[in-house]
């Protein structure tokens, strides 16, 4: 993962909003997404720059991507990012280099600004890719320990945890882009007393999960594992994922095969693919394992991955209730945590997923699982923050929450920072809870 001219901190764009301090989308970021200008229009690929979107189809039509490999130009004109993700890393890099040239001060897109630049407020974002398969891991040892403690205080972590990356196969059809309203699910919950029948009704313990997402690149053939030393090149970029969870449904249904309807009603994905190339300055060593922990088995161990395999991205969760919105009060930060604190690196998740020969395909989404950290303020879901619903979170509005109520709006954010580089962000991953269907 090399640094080049696109990461230069002195680089500036002719798009004024991209120079605003605190923007998620300076010219050093250049994340890709899929948007529509009006509901009936075909989706197209765009690049976020400040408060605007650069239209890649329009850029191709004007010849601004001329000279790039034909497969890159085709990917830029597509209706999703699957074709982009299928490109080898070197080809993806050529698109980034060109976008950086077009958008920098004096860049040749400036003369076509009226044709290629659209305010983000005037477009609707779609999912970055057509996701064939979605897998959710459980890669935060802090989350696994906090949740395990609620159920098994004497031995929070199960014996497999430090050896094998744990995950479940999620539902791709109910992935939704940020901004989509989330309908409170109904489902079956455990009987209140022995001998009673289980109940069916709206979830009363609705929760969010703060997660990172990995969109996969070229993929692998069925039966052919991905070696750990190559696994990083199979990640096209990162996003934010909110794995909405109905804890009461989950508690009754999860044994012995794991999460099912408690998770599959909706999962929110942030709209921008922050590419691995953009994240090159923000790589970090794999989280150090405490003394006495087992070393990863050889198929999960590569020195380069241990040295640079993690991503130094700070994540945060924000809650704004209906009352806070009515009163014009800002969102309240519930927690923050770091992707670099995960027990497994993204490459280890990819190598493990393919280790049995399972084929991964461009556009597949792997989520990290809830990202928590060692401190109380690092707990990435309400189940952890409220100690299983026992301790309410008090909000500045005077309200309190154990789990989510109708009208609550949850926003996830992510930001990568390093001394000497311009910080980049992920944009919002947002959803508001609607009341259950009658
Ligand atoms: Mn999850």
Would you give an account of this structure?
With 438 residues, this protein is α+β, with helices and mostly antiparallel strands. It has 12 helices and 27 strands. The longest helix is centred in the N-terminal third of the chain and has 15 residues. A hairpin with a 2-residue loop joins strand 2 and strand 3. The site of manganese (II) ion has 6 residues, from loops.
**Which range does the strand content fall in?**
15-25%
Distance between the termini: 52 Å
Using only CA atoms, what is the Rg?
Answer: 22 Å
Helix % is 10-25%
* Overall number of domains: 2
Tell me the total number of β-strands: 27
The CATH topology of the largest domain is given as Fumarylacetoacetate hydrolase, domain 2
Note the main attributes of this structure:
27 strands, alpha+beta, SH3 type barrels, 438 residues, binds manganese (II) ion, 8-stranded mixed sheet, Fumarylacetoacetate hydrolase, domain 2, 12 helices, 6-stranded mixed sheet
Summarize the structure.
The chain has 438 residues and is an alpha+beta fold. It has twelve helices and 27 strands.
List the SSEs and their pairings:
Blueprint: E1 32-36, E2 44-49, E3 52-55, H1 56-61, H2 70-76, H3 82-86, H4 89-103, H5 113-116, E4 117-119, E5 124-125, E6 134-137, H6 141-151, E7 167-170, E8 175-177, E9 182-183, E10 186-189, E11 199-202, E12 206-207, E13 210-216, H7 228-231, E14 235-242, E15 245-246, H8 247-253, E16 267-269, E17 274-275, E18 283-284, H9 303-308, E19 310-311, E20 313-320, H10 322-326, E21 332-338, H11 346-354, E22 365-367, H12 382-385, E23 393-394, E24 400-401, E25 409-416, E26 424-425, E27 429-434
Parallel strand pairs: 6-22, 8-16, 9-27
Antiparallel strand pairs: 1-2, 1-5, 2-3, 3-4, 6-7, 10-11, 12-15, 13-14, 13-22, 14-16, 14-17, 18-19, 20-21, 20-25, 23-24, 25-26, 25-27
This protein binds manganese (II) ion (MN).
């Amino acid at each position: 993962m090399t640094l080049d001219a696109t990461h230069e901190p002195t680089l500036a764009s002719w798009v004024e909003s991209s120079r605003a301090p605190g923007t998620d989308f300076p010219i050093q970021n250049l994340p890709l997404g899929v948007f529509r200008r009006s509901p009936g229009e075909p989706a197209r690929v765009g690049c976020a720059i400040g408060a605007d979107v650069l239209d890649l189809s329009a850029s191709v039509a004007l010849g601004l991507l001329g000279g790039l490999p034909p497969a890159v130009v085709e990917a830029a004109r597509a209706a999703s990012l699957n074709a982009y993700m299928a490109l080898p890393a070197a080809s993806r890099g050529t698109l980034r280099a060109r976008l950086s040239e077009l958008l920098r001060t004096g860049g040749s897109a400036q003369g076509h600004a009226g044709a290629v630049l659209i305010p983000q407020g005037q477009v609707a974002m779609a999912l970055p890719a057509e996701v064939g398969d979605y897998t959710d891991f459980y890669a935060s040892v802090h989350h696994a320990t906090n949740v395990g403690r609620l159920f098994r205080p004497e031995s929070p972590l199960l014996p497999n945890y430090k050896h094998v990356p744990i995950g479940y196969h999620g539902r791709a059809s109910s992935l939704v882009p940020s901004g989509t309203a989330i309908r409170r699910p109904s489902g079956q919950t455990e009987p209140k007393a022995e001998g009673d029948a289980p109940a069916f009704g709206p979830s009363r313990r609705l929760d969010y999960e703060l997660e990172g997402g990995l969109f996969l690149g070229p993929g692998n053939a069925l039966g052919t594992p991905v070696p750990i030393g190559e696994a990083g090149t199979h990640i096209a970029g990162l996003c934010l994922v909110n794995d909405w969870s109905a804890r009461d449904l989950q508690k009754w249904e999860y044994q012995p095969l794991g999460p099912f309807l408690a998770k599959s009603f909706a999962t929110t994905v942030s709209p921008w693919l922050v590419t691995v190339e953009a994240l090159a300055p923000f790589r970090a060593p794999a989280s150090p394992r405490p003394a006495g922990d087992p070393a990863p088995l050889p198929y999960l161990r590569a020195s380069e991955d241990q040295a640079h395999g993690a991503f130094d991205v700070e994540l945060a969760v924000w809650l704004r209730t209906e009352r806070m919105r009515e009163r014009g009060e800002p969102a309240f930060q519930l927690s923050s945590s770091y992707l670099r604190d995960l027990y497994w690196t993204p490459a280890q998740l990819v190598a493990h997923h393919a280790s049995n020969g399972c084929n991964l395909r461009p556009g597949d989404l792997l989520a990290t699982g809830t990202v928590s950290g060692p401190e109380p303020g690092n707990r990435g879901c309400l189940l952890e923050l409220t100690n299983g619903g026992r301790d309410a979170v008090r909000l500045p509005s005077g309200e309190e929450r154990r789990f989510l109520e109708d009208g609550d709006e949850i926003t996830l954010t992510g930001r990568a920072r390093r001394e000497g580089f311009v910080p980049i962000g992920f944009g919002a991953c947002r959803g508001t809870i609607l009341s259950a269907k009658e």
